[in-house]
Amino acid sequence: MSTYGGRHVLRDSWIPVERRWLGLDRRTLLPGLVVIAIALLLRTAIPAIDQAIPVDNVITAGDRINLNDGLTIAPPTGWDLTDGILVGANTVEPGAGSPSASFGQGGIAAQIQVAKFAGDANALLDQVNRNDSVNPNRPEFTVTGQRATVTATGGLTGVAEDYTSASHDGILAAYTLSDGRGVAIEVIGTANQLAAQTAQITAMLRSVSFEEQP
């Protein structure tokens, strides 16, 4: 309350005693509590529910990804398939696959891309290296160690090598097929994560299988 010209005038911010509780305006308590409840829900309940919801695309033993026209690969069991079509999955065209796939687990991510390529596996891996060396998502891209040969299912031969960058470490692999397609596989993560999953990643690279279609 303030005095003006000898008269007492009520300030707009003055709250009558009957509307106060612990010094607060009772009318603002409910909206304030609602805001607090929503904030708590967003920060605790919803993340907890999200963690409790099972992932629908967990890869199980025996699953293979259909990369189309007789090309398949077995991703590691227990990883999450985020893109791609499993062998036997329903598609618009029965038996058709997808030329790309991605999956991962615990900070590791794998990406597969299939496209037409005129050259051998070494030439394809050289091309992937050139692309990654100018990729802004691969700052300070550097190939490390020796390029190794990978012999996959049915005698299909590819090449693989490790690399490091300022953002992460990775493994690159490449295969070329008799039908004129090339397969590029990249697995990224930290050095420790990749080392812990070496056996699964190696088994995946060796599981690439190609059966020429009639």
Tell me what the structure shows.
This protein is of the alpha+beta class and 214 residues long. The chain has two domains: 51 residues, no CATH class; 146 residues, Mog1/PsbP, alpha/beta/alpha sandwich (Protein Transport Mog1p, Chain A, 3-Layer(aba) Sandwich), CATH 3.40.1000. 26% of the residues lie in helices and 33% in strands. The chain contains four helices and 14 strands. Strands 7-8-9-13-12-11-10 form a seven-stranded antiparallel sheet, sandwiched between helices. The chain has a three-stranded antiparallel sheet with strand order 5-6-14. It is globular and about 45 Å long. 22% of the residues are buried.
Mean pLDDT: 82
Task: State the strand order across the main sheet.
Answer: 7-8-9-13-12-11-10
Number of strands: 14
**What name does CATH use for the topology of the largest domain?**
Protein Transport Mog1p, Chain A
Oligomer: single chain
Number of separate helices: 4
Q: Give the helix/strand class.
A: alpha+beta
- Could you give me the name of the CATH homologous superfamily of the largest domain? Mog1/PsbP, alpha/beta/alpha sandwich
What is the second-level CATH architecture of the largest domain?
3-Layer(aba) Sandwich
Amino-to-carboxy terminus distance:
93 Å
Q: Helicity level, as a percent range?
A: 25-40%
